Amino acid sequence: GVYGLGDSLADGFEGGARAAAEAGFQTVEGLLPKALSRLEEPTLALFQVPHEKNTARAPKQFVDLQNDVTAAAIELATREGFESVEHVKRYTALGFGTDQGKLGNVNGLAIAARSLNVTIPQMGTTMFRPNYTPVTFGAVAGRHCGHIFEPVRYTALHQWHLKNGAEFEDVGQWKRPWYFPKSGEDLHAAVKRECKAVRDSVGLLDASTLGKIDIQGPDTREFLNRVYTNAWTKLDVGKARYGLMCKEDGMVFDDGVTACLADNHFVMTTTTGGAARVLQWLELYHQTEWPDMKVYFTSVTDHWATMTLSGPNSRKLLSEVTDIDLSNEAFPFMTWKEGLVGGVPARVFRISFTGELSYEVNVQADYAMGVLEKIVDAGKKYNLTPYGTETMHVLRAEKGFIIVGQDTDSSMTPDDLNMGWCVGRTKPFSWIGWRGMNREDCVRDQRKQLVGLKPIDPNKWLPEGAQLVFNTKQAIPMT
Q1: Cα 309 vs. chain centroid, distance in angstroms?
Q2: 225 and 317 co-located in one domain
Q3: Where in the numbering of this chain does the GCVT N-terminal domain appear (predicted)?
C-alpha cells in the first residue's frame, strides 16, 4: 500500500485519470497537489512515558486515575510475586473503579507484562463487572418493559376474586377487582346491579389495598397535628377521624381515616396509590424538620386484609359472625371495636365511603380467606353482592366523597374542594401547607371549584375525561 501523504495524492491522481480514460473520456495533464513525502511508521505503543530514574524513584506516574494506582505499585506487585493478572489487580486495586478498568487497564497490563518479561497478550486481561458499557435509558425507563418491570401486588382475597369472575384494574401496583360481571353483562350492567345491591341490601368490597401506617410514640398526636390540616389532640381512644394532608404549597396531597388505638398509638390509612409516598413523606419531615419528636412509623398494609360490608343490611349480616355489639349506642359512626369475626380476632371500623351503613373488617391477612367464607355464607340470605372499584366510584360520587388523584390534580386546596371544614385554622402550631394555602393566589376570588354534574337524561353518562364547553366550535380548553 501507499502510506505517505504525497505518494497517496499522486496515486489517487493517477487512478482518477486511468478511470476517466477507461470510461471513454479524454484525459488532460493537471497539477498534482504538493505535499511532503516522509516515511510513515506504525504507531508507537507508549504505555509509560520513559524517564532516567527507576520507576519507584521517579515522580509518580498514575495509571488508574480512579484508585490512584501508580506504575511503581504495579512493578512492586510483580516483585512481590504476584504474576497472575487477577492477583496484580487485587494487590493494586487496578480496574476496581466505576470504569472497571476502561481508563487505565491497558497501560497497567502493559507495565505488568514488561515487568514480568512477557507479552501483553500473555499477561491476559482482568474480569470486569457489569455495567462495563453504558446502559441506555430505554432499558430502565417507560412502562412498556413487560410484566417484570414492576412488581404486581395481590390482596389476600385475590383467589376468591378470580373464582368469582372479577375483572381487574391496576391501582398503583395492586390488582384490584374492577367489577364482577355475570353472564352476558358488560361493565355498565354489572355496575348498575352492584350499586343497587349496596343501596337495597349489602355489598362486599375488598379494601385491603388502602395504605396502613402504624404510628406510635409519645409525640404521635402532635405529629399528626402538623401533617394533617385538622386537629388531633383531643381524639379519644376508640374513635377515628378523617384527615387531609397538604404539601407545603397548600395543595391537597393525600387523605384518609386515622384511628386512635391507644393514647400514643394510631393507625393511619392512605390512598392505595399513595401509601409508599405518604410513609416516605412522614419519615422525611420527622428526620429533617422535627427530629426531636419521639414518633415511629411502620407500614402494615400487607399485614391486614380489609373487607368492607356496606348497605342497610350490613349490621344484620355482620352480627351473625361477630361477638361485637353493633348497636348505634355501643358502636357509633367513626369509631372502632376489637372482637371476633368468624372466630378470628379483628378490628372493625364503622366508616362509610358509600353513604350507607358500613363496617370495615380488618383481620390478619393469613386468616382472611377463612373469615371471608364465613361472611359469604352468612350473607346468602341477604343477597350479599361483591362489588369492585367502579361501583365504589359511583357510590362515593353520589355521596359527594372525593378521591385524591382522580378529583384532584395537585393544584387544588381544601377550599377548592369545598372542604374548608377540614382545615384547623386555629391550631397553635403551623402545619404543613398552612402558609402556602394563605398565599394571595390561593385565597383570591373565582378560583376553580370542584362540583358534581348530573346528566339531564339519567340513562346517559358523561364520558370520562370529557370537557365542558360553552361553544362546540371553540378550541379546548376554554378560558
Answers
A1: 30
A2: yes
A3: 157-426
Q: Are strands 344-349 and 358-364 parallel, antiparallel or unpaired?
A: antiparallel
Q: pLDDT tens, 296-305?
A: 999 999 999 9
Cα separation of 98 and 106, whole Å? 16
Are 17 and 48 part of one and the same domain?
A: no
Range of the domain at 8: 1-41
pTM of the predicted model as reported, rounded to 2 decimal places:
0.69
The helix (H) or strand (E) run that includes residue 441 is helix 440-443
Of 34-38, 50-54, 186-190, the poorest mean pLDDT is in: 34-38
To which residue does cell 507508549 refer? 46
In 3D space, the residue among 281, 239, 283, 285 whose CA is nearest the CA of residue 258 turns out to be 239
Residue where a domain stops, chosen among 361, 384, 399: 399
Query: CA-to-CA distance for 397 and 353, rounded, in angstroms?
Result: 9
Residue-wise DSSP of 201-247: S-EEEE-TTSEEEEEESTTHHHHHHHHSSS--TTPPTTBEEEEEEE-
Kindly state whether residues 18 and 97 are assigned to the same domain. no
Strand-pair partners of 305: 363
Tell me, what's the pLDDT at 458?
83
